[in-house]
Structure formats: C-alpha cells, structure tokens
Fold this protein.
Amino acid sequence: MVYQATQVIYDAMKEHNLECGMEARDEFSAVHIGINTESTSFEARFISRSDENDVALRIFNLLKFPPERTESMLLAVNECNFKYRFLRFVVDTKNNAVDACYDFTGHSGNIGETAYELLMRSASIIDNCYPVLMHEISG
C-alpha cells in the first residue's frame, strides 16, 4: 500500500525533476532518491507508516568507519549535531556507519514541498559535515 504522504512526496520530487523511485510494503511505503553533492553521494529515503503525515527521512550508511574509530566518530557526530539543526547524525555501532535522520512533525503543511526543502537542506548540511567526519576516519 502506498501511503498518502509517500505519493505526495513522490509527486513533488518529480515536479522538481528529481529521479526517484517508490516502494510499497505491508508495513510502510517509501520514496528513494539518489543525491550527489560536492563531497559525496547518498540515497535518501522518505518513509511513511500511516496515512497521516507520518514521514521519516533516513539516510543509511552515509559513511562507514573502522570499529577502532567509533569514539572519535561519536565526537565528530556530536560536533555536527551541535552546529546544525534539522538533520541529526547518528553513529550506528552495529554496522560501523554514520546515518542521518529527520522526523517530520504531524503538521508539516505541504508535505511534498517540505520534504523537498529538507532534502536540499540535508544535502547542504552533509556537504559541510562530510569533511569533518572523513577526517575522523583518516585520523
């Protein structure tokens, strides 16, 4: 089942000429978008689990790091989270990866345009933080 917010986000991304795909499962529906920035590329997912404006932006495996760099990566992620709003970086210690997340409020107005704006802001924030995070990998 494709939830209402997923369809609206998909339509908005297409209106902005972004290549994207849609996925529907029993428990969720999602829009997948590949993004290239100056410093990296990543896949953003807008995930809905109900017909409300229940949407989560998830960027999994933004970058991978060696297990021995976990502590320094936590410090770098905290630095980025302190400096920027809207997007939250998370260290996934199970997969040794940095993810990025945002949970939309239930009343986000036009969820499609809000998702597009957040995607653009996220790309900018990631471009600014990516060198800081990469520095922690190389030491």
